[in-house]
Write a structure and sequence with these properties.
131 residues, mainly alpha, two-stranded antiparallel sheet, 4 helices, 2 strands, 42% helix, 3% strand
Length: 131
């Protein structure tokens, strides 16, 4: 694992797969608002008329979902595929680093960690663990 300083991003690491298209904002705010509004309307219309026209409603839902994604994320895969470069921005990368010192011997920490019933004591999203 590699450490990154404040002047570089983990996105610039040549070892990582190319995932740059996911952080590209290539849709303007008016387009995003229009896409999201139209997407919600299409999804709602498709849900209301699903019993009468299931295929049409499914297609409306799929197009609505794409438009909702486009509006929420600001990323349009069609624009990326077409090579749209005007007004393109990248979202900034955020690096978070922390360290923790456990003042116990390794074998004691390992034994505590391996006992699964102890997990809820430090993993607050777990209520209980039973064998």
């Amino acid at each position: 694992m590699r450490d990154y300083d404040a002047t570089e991003s983990w996105m610039d690491d040549p070892v990582l797969p190319n995932i740059r298209s996911n952080n590209v904002i290539n849709v303007s705010w008016p387009e995003r608002l229009l896409s999201a509004t139209t997407g919600v309307a299409l999804i709602g219309h498709g849900m209301r008329h699903f019993t009468k026209h299931p295929v049409k409603s499914l297609l409306q839902g799929m197009v609505g979902g794409f438009l909702l994604y486009r509006g929420a994320s600001g990323n349009c895969p069609a624009y990326t595929a077409l090579g749209k470069t005007r007004n393109v921005r990248r979202t900034p990368a955020i690096n978070v680093r922390t360290s923790l010192v456990v003042n116990k011997p390794r074998h004691e920490v390992y034994r505590f960690w391996r006992k699964l019933e102890n997990l809820p004591s430090f993993m607050h999203h777990l209520a209980a663990v039973r064998k």
